[in-house]
Amino acid sequence: MYAQTSIQIELPSVFPRQAPTASPEGSVAHPVSFFSPGSEIYAQGEKAKAVYQVEFGAVRIYRLLADGRRQISAFHFAGETFGFEGDITHHFFAEAINSTGVRVFRVGSGTDLSHHLLPLALKGLTRAQEHLLVLGRQNAIERVAAFLLDMAERQGDLRQIDLPMSRIDIGDYLGLTIETVSRVFSRLKEKGVIRLHSLRRIEVLKRDALRAMGE
Amino acid sequence: MYAQTSIQIELPSVFPRQAPTASPEGSVAHPVSFFSPGSEIYAQGEKAKAVYQVEFGAVRIYRLLADGRRQISAFHFAGETFGFEGDITHHFFAEAINSTGVRVFRVGSGTDLSHHLLPLALKGLTRAQEHLLVLGRQNAIERVAAFLLDMAERQGDLRQIDLPMSRIDIGDYLGLTIETVSRVFSRLKEKGVIRLHSLRRIEVLKRDALRAMGE
DNA sequence: CGGATCCTTGATGACCGTCAACGTGTGTGG
DNA sequence: CCACACACGTTGACGGTCATCAAGGATCCG
């Protein structure tokens, strides 16, 4: 699709939707790598040798079945940290969704990050387990509602949500097909719950209705 | 259902199906609590103040929706550690499935367990994310196959698997109803893939067939 | 402006949930 | 030791939800 580009550049944080968490090692300078849309940050089976903090853009973490079915287990946006799924070897793929800048913190070799990583791992664990409830026990409307609420919350609970990812990504995150995602969006529009300014920019008109659906 | 019983007794490990992991604090003696079937170990909303190691028996971790739908996110058996879902406050319930002994390691108050907890949290994270793939992208047969393979692996890959949990628990773990679980078991019997010695004791006759299904 | 990708909408059917009835296993008390 | 009762599990009939297949429309890029 896209060739992987991993240029080492120093960039300021452009879209800090969320205050970046404190740098694991404080004042030490760490390189920012730039990834073009669709390019791979790491692959399943690779040795995990760093953790990554999103400076701008968005990242998807996913796994594949042999026949190509894909499950996105998490999205990560500006300020969020990822890269510790799997102790030694990555069990997942990480890809840039858009043009994305990622700050790299090399792990191992003396420095001890476990104090910083534990809370991040626990947060990831909680998120994953909450997502299990969505995939295991909620229907299509409830899944989309939960997704929109989560996106809204992570963007500061504004009325406007922008979705950096495609419908395919949303479907593969929610365990649905893109057609079902699209139909649910249409139904939510009909009901006056949301409004689409563009394909990837959504306004939430009735937050309570969403909450009632997403539980 | 059952009254909660939490008697502080010292018990030897009875069913060490798996070698217990090293005690987080080595030589210090820690109490073993006994829980009767169905009794609560901790509840959603409680402050997390300990981690727990299963001595014998089995534990289910789950979450509920308002209308009672339940999603079991994990089972834990002898030798396994749980209790760190949620940083400060538990976001989940933990219940004993059978008569279960649990060794309690209190957290906080000086002692620093983060070095011990991080690998456990990462393992839990990986398991949860793998389970996301099952719930999001696999059909009923594939889910049950994956479940049986996981159970077999955690019991040392013997031909005989014993399931400490009910069909309801299996259904709530796999995002299926008990009827569907039952039907899949029957189909696997018809195909000669498994054999039921009793309701909760299963013999795997064709491991390869299971692998082909569970991916 | 043109082409490709992404998204939407419709028709159809498969899979699995629901409801219901029956079978099986387990524990208790007579 | 047997009888009974209750929880658990199985099987069948049916319907709803969502996947699949297909076509057309919107959007974005050069």
UniProtKB/TrEMBL annotation, chains A, B:
The keyword Transcription regulation applies. This is Helix-turn-helix domain-containing protein. Residues 35-83 form the Cyclic nucleotide-binding domain. Gene3D superfamilies: Jelly Rolls (2.60.120.10), Winged helix-like DNA-binding domain superfamily/Winged helix DNA-binding domain (1.10.10.10). Keywords: DNA-binding, Transcription, Transcription regulation. SUPFAM superfamilies: cAMP-binding domain-like, Winged helix' DNA-binding domain. PANTHER family: CRP FAMILY TRANSCRIPTIONAL REGULATORY PROTEIN (PTHR24567), FUMARATE AND NITRATE REDUCTION REGULATORY PROTEIN (PTHR24567:SF75). Residues 138-208 form the HTH crp-type domain.
